[in-house]
Amino acid sequence: MTKRKELHDGTPFTVSVPCSTANLGPGFDVLGCGLGMRMSVTCTFPESDKGLTVSYNGDSPHTVPLDPSRNLITRTAIQTAASFGQLLPTPMHVAIENPIPLGRGLGSSGTAVVAGVVLANESLGLGMDTQRILDYCLAIEGHPDNITASILGGFVASYKREHPDPAPPKEETIEYKQNYSTLYPDVPDFEAPPCNLGKHLRLKVSPKIKFVVTIPEFELQTKLARSVLPQEYPKADVIFNLQRLAVLVSTLTSDDAKDIDPAVISEAMHDRVHQKYRQHLVPGLPEILSLSYKTLPGLLGVCVSGAGPTVLCLATDNFEKIGQTVVDIFGKHSVDEAPGYEKQKGVKGSKKVGIKASFKVLEVSAEGFTVSRG
Ligand SMILES: Nc1ncnc2c1ncn2[C@@H]1O[C@H](COP(=O)(O)OP(=O)(O)OP(=O)(O)O)[C@@H](O)[C@H]1O
Ligand SMILES: N[C@@H](CCO)C(=O)O
């Protein structure tokens, strides 16, 4: 719950947040895993009359707005503060260092939302605990799998509650009442979310398993990838996923090394809830999803990472070969095979040219977000 602390004393601080992979096959909107690639956001309080300022160094620099009302991190922080009836302290400079590729299925937006909520919490001494931070992130992001992994780190299962508890009343400062709409005319006021909106549970995962993520050079906005999903599902498909979800979680969290069985995990990572509806948005996906330990020893299973287009291979060995195999399959396709790709913001691929992709071998990030001072 929220227990107010002293206001921030002007000491600079840095929020570091891991990227994440979500779904892991059958766990659509349920499973997530924090991975070893982190964004950092450093807040300093310089002598200046410029109010709130933002700088950005990292992936897709030309697509990230530096206007604090439009940048996802600062906009989230402004709204979080507003829900407490407060303004962020100024002058404040927010310096973002971000290696996480945007719009590729590695939870960049979840990472940004977590950073924004934590930024407000720290700079105003709001005293939110992990659960309350989750409530805010979930209210903004909508689904829990990426944000819970970025909050807690590690392998995380989560759900969103349909009947959460009421939010505490808002107490507005005079400064907020007088200045919010003038300072931030483009940021709609934001009500505090209900309490205990979601629940997340940290699971252990075998340290032998590494996450080979193959990242194509084109973006796929999560909003578009969610818009192609059906409203209703055949009973057989729901059962198909539930069966695999239970087995997948059991095997990945087992202490018994013989449970890391590629024959079981590859089958347990199959999905009928989101991947088949999205495969036209990720050229080459059917071929990639058919890869298996039978031809690639060390490969446990393959799925789309988050909403795509990045592909996740769980593996215990042969990581470079596995990553390169996926890179090569992407290279046989071009982005114009994905209908609607040209409507996506910031799309990078060019017509009729093989999709460029690169892979990274990532470990599970044991730590979720951290805050360091000074
Ligand atoms: N560090 C950041 N600073 C500002 N905006 C960001 C940052 N990271 C992500 N965003 C915003 O989030 C958008 C990408 O979010 P989107 O949900 O589409 O994909 P994703 O989170 O990378 O993938 P997925 O949800 O499938 O894991 C970017 O286009 C940008 O608008
Ligand atoms: N579960 C989400 C993850 C991406 O944000 C999806 O697949 O749409």
Automatic annotation (TrEMBL):
Q: Which UniProt keywords apply?
A: Amino-acid biosynthesis, ATP-binding, Kinase, Nucleotide-binding, Threonine biosynthesis, Transferase
* Entry-linked Pfam families: GHMP_kinases_N
Recorded protein name is Homoserine kinase
What domain of life does the native source organism fall in?
A: Eukaryota
| Record InterPro entries | GHMP_kinase_C_sf, GHMP_kinase_N_dom, GHMP_knse_ATP-bd_CS, Homoserine_kinase, Ribosomal_Su5_D2-typ_SF, Ribsml_uS5_D2-typ_fold_subgr
What range(s) does the GHMP kinase N-terminal domain occupy?
A: 71-154
Question: What pathway, per the record?
Answer: Amino-acid biosynthesis; L-threonine biosynthesis; L-threonine from L-aspartate: step 4/5
Q: Which GO terms describe its molecular function?
A: ATP binding; homoserine kinase activity
What is the source species? Answer: Rhizoclosmatium globosum
> For this protein, what is the EC number?
2.7.1.39
Give the similarity note: Belongs to the GHMP kinase family. Homoserine kinase subfamily.
Family annotation (NCBIfam families): thrB (TIGR00191)
Q: Which SUPFAM superfamilies match?
A: GHMP Kinase, C-terminal domain (SSF55060), Ribosomal protein S5 domain 2-like (SSF54211)
- Matching Gene3D superfamilies: 3.30.230.10, GHMP kinase, C-terminal domain (3.30.70.890)
The catalysed reaction is:
L-homoserine + ATP = O-phospho-L-homoserine + ADP + H(+)
Q: Write down the HAMAP family for this protein, in alphabetical order.
A: Homoser_kinase
Q: Name one GO biological process term.
A: threonine biosynthetic process
